[in-house]
Design a protein that fits this description.
Layout lengths: L2 H5 L2 E7 L6 H11 L2 E6 L17 H6 L2 E2 L12 H17 L3 E6 L2 H9 L9 H14 L1 H11 L1 H6 L5 H14 L3 H12 L6 E9 L3 H18 L1 H10 L15 H8 L5 H24 L4 E5 L5 H12 L2
Parallel strand pairs: 1-4, 1-5, 2-3, 2-4, 5-6
Length: 320
Amino acid sequence: MNDAIQQERCPAICLLGPTASGKTALAIEIVRRLPCEIISVDSAQIYRGMDIGTGKPDSATLAVAPHRLLDFLDPALAYSASQFRSDALREMADIRRSGRIPLLVGGTMLYFKALRDGLAQMPAADAEVRQRIGVLALSRGWAHVHDQLREVDPESAERIHPNDPQRLQRALEVFLVSGRSMTQWHQESRADSRHSDIPFDLHFLSIQPGSRGVLHDRIATRFLQMIADGLVAEVEKLRARGDLALALPSMRAVGYRQVWQYIEGELSFDGMVEQGIIATRQLAKRQITWLRSWENLRDLDSENPETLELVLKFVDRISI
């Protein structure tokens, strides 16, 4: 990278963490005190009409701390990491032009990775291989496909849930087509181009409670509050549209799937609540797994009363 480009690089803060870890509350306090503006990094909060189950900030919060890339897409549509990267870079540039610092906040680690590393050049889709994987899933189940992926790409298998057929199929397809795992493709792409094509220095902060038990309790409390706030009615309204189904990425979001199954009679109310909490805890576990392998990550304890001051000092230092 030449000196002219290097001089144009600006700081951007990335605040990561598992669900219910306190990211949004911390981000809002940062915005109250420093010239930062929030960009949401959440693959569910992008959807309109999905407010309660995604933990979307309410109107009063947004009046104090506006969020970009929030509540802009219809749930019937798909959205990729590539689209996020393009949209995020556009919003980051706009924030910098206003003299402020981008503050990217969320728990969709794949989006953060796409922003940081760029997008790997993957093998093209192969219809025949996809059909073979589909036949295998029909005969043996997606859990078996997940086991097959674990044998050839344990890193991807750790990140991808057994009930995520789209990502499972793609990850196994990449290996069967190329003989190299998706993890290898990402690593090679990252080695070639990391940070080279964005005019920002990304600074990564992670927040979560020091105790896993505290996080689990928060998750349960928050899910119960979502039910009390009307999550079932929210999903009923989405289902009544007639053009949405559980196969869509939006409806596969944690909480929405379980409530949809309850409405369909596949789960009892208590079963829905139990499965919703379990699924959310599993999501948090996968997010924490991502964070463990993240380079140059500054860890913050959400239970530490000094955390906000530590962050403010850090942001002040890098923005000089």
